[in-house]
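Thread title: Can someone regenerate the structure for this chain?

I was given the following input by a collaborator and told the matching structure tokens would be attached. They weren't. Posting the sequence so someone can regenerate them.
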Amino acid sequence: MKQYNTIKAKYPDALLLFRVGDFYETFGEDAVRTAKILGIVLTQRNNGSDRTELAGFPHHALNTYLPKLVKAGERVAICDQLEDPKQTKTIVKRGVTELVTPGVALNDDILQAGSNNFLCAVHSGKTLMGVSFLDVSTGEFLLAEGKPSYIDKLLQNFSPSEVLVSKKQKISFRETFGKHWHDFLLEDWIFQDDYARETLNTHFKTNTLKGFGVEDLKEGIIAAGAILHYLSETQHKQLDHINKLQRIAREDYVWMDRFTMRNLELHHSNAANAVTLIDIIDHTQSPMGSRLLKRWLALPLKKSEEIIGRHETVEHLTREKELLHALQQKIGSLSDLERLISKVATGKINPREVVHLKESLSVITPIQELINKKGNDPLKSLATSLDPCEELTGRISTMLNEEAPVNLSKGSVIAEGYSAELDELRKLAFSGKDYLDQMLEREMENTGISSLKISSNNVFGYYIEVRNTHKDKVPAHWIRKQTLVNAERYITEELKEYESKILGAEEKIAVLEQQLFTQLVVWMNDHIPAVQKNAGLLAQLDCLCGFANLAVQNDYRRPQIDDSTDLEIVQGRHPVIEKQLPPGEAYIANDVCLDRESQQIIMITGPNMSGKSAILRQTALIVLLAQMGSFVPAESARIGIVDKIFTRVGASDNISMGESTFMVEMNETASILNNLSERSLILLDEIGRGTSTYDGISIAWAITEYLHEHPSKAKTLFATHYHELNEMCDSFERIKNYNVSVKELKDKVLFLRKLVPGGSEHSFGIHVARMAGMPQQVITRANKMLKKLEKSHSGEEIAGSLKEAADEEMQLSFFNLDDPLLEEIRDEILHTDINTLTPVEALMKLNEIKRMLVKKKQA
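Best answer:
Regenerated them for you:
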């Protein structure tokens, strides 16, 4: 316990898994938390005068229990035995070999194959903030710098599992970015410019960071330095796979704030079991491709040449379906190259994974051949950049068994014929019976004893047994070891020599296989950059093939990208909603045209549930898909490069931060109005509905006017239920009215979901209430109130009409008492003294009322 307490003192914030024999044990408060998370038994043990809580599990179950602890948000220090207990007479030396945290994990059971696991650091400077992201399992290391809103957007995009912050900035970090991040506090001195640069230069073996293009990002460099410091603190020293630092170039990508990413449901949705955009468009076949696609979605391109390059390749693949199918099949057989080569760097790769790495690299040559036969120029250029790593695959093939086990200690890792010494030892260990049979045959021939027998026991090992009848034929050089009733047992020099060989062989085999495998892994370190480059290129190829497959399956078309500021979508569809429709139901496609000259703002009115929000969202998603390099769900689309997408869609309270729906709405709208550009696309849905009608109309009017008069003339779609805003098109030349059409039948409404020119006069909210199953009395009452209100316009008249309508029907307001029979029944009920009625009289009275109704019906 003294040893345990000493080690625990170094890792006070972590759960310490303390290796004792075949178990990992936890003690005290750690044991209480561990037992609760894992659902294992909590016991107690007396340690002198103290009683200590205890919880543990077998060491071989570490991969089962460790992910549960980390996913529960715990930092876990793994303390192993650093020497063989057989080799020491004192207490076994122990030490922490790895500290696993939510953001620093290499265990496949903790990681998700198709998603990055980012560790992040945030540093706030005097004017700007710096942020850095590292996925230790793939080696991706990124940094950026900007205002808090930009850092917030990146945090949303990269969704780090753990965020490092300096202790003095803890409160400001939580106030700016919220309390839902899993943050870990580091000492303030770690966040220093000179210390960060020294840490980074030491790691990359450079004198300056200019080669990475990040030299001027002071706050970003401080954040990146803090991450590397944290890795050394968590016992992660072998980091050769982290060999470059990349800048997230803000000017290269479409700007979307966190509200927009949330509103468009790109990666996540607040609704349970909701389908997001990534769920629909991810047709990738490999984990590397799936991770890269999420990055492409988070950071859509702004450079038209790059976008058009992707479109050309996708178009080529949609035409060459055989090539597409063959490439997807090959990519589907790849293992996760990025994570496998990272395990090589950290020394955590097992023999089976090395074989998988070799098999994946072997797929590169067939991919190159396929592309060289039928690929276009961009694909051929990508294929040329791939490196089959023949030296690496050749050595692994020569050295390892095809069926190498996961666990090195299981043996049969190194292939036959690679090491003469190993082959000799295996021969000894596993072909011993043959050798003994040959020896027995030889001795029987030499001595003439036909009944010789070679056996072994625990007392003196191998021996030759001779029956008493042949005792006289025993050679003089045999040594007698044991006399039995009917036989004598002897040993020979040859037998003893063989015995020592065979007993040592198995131990030597284990040691030699370990040595040879370790040598191979160390040698493989030289090939890390080549394999990482391959992984990146194959991920790109996977994404482009995924886009082509998406286009073929869902009838997406190639958009036309140009440098204008126009947006023309013909027969556009919502990529997610169209996949959720019941079988046989077609999605109603719509046209949307926006420009900065004649139709800058489209005011969309229409009933609730008619599809206004879907039209807004699909417009943004079509632009996003196009600028990612994908085809789009439309008959055709011409898209002038968009540099910022803003959305204000749906009501969302932020009650935990003390903000109402209306406050959230105003915050998000203010963010839009303060960041406009001439290439922005703005989508506003029901602005102002969080406050009173007249406040709401006034605010919505003022916002629309501001957007119209702003020099940027930003393209805007504005969905509203305030029909009064339709009047704006008379005063403002670039505002046009559209509505989502409906067809009114006798007592119901058919939603046609078609966008047509002109304003709408009704909201049909009552019809929606009927569809929701509202009681008929409520629907009838609402219709009456609506008719009263429609006659009024001013606020006073509305209030007066409401009161008048309410007074008129105050008494038994759900009944129409114009009918004399109903009045008679009312009087009958009112004059009945319920307190004196017996149950039988009550039933008779009810029957009487029923008869009156039946008589009326028959009449």
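The radius of gyration is 38 Å.
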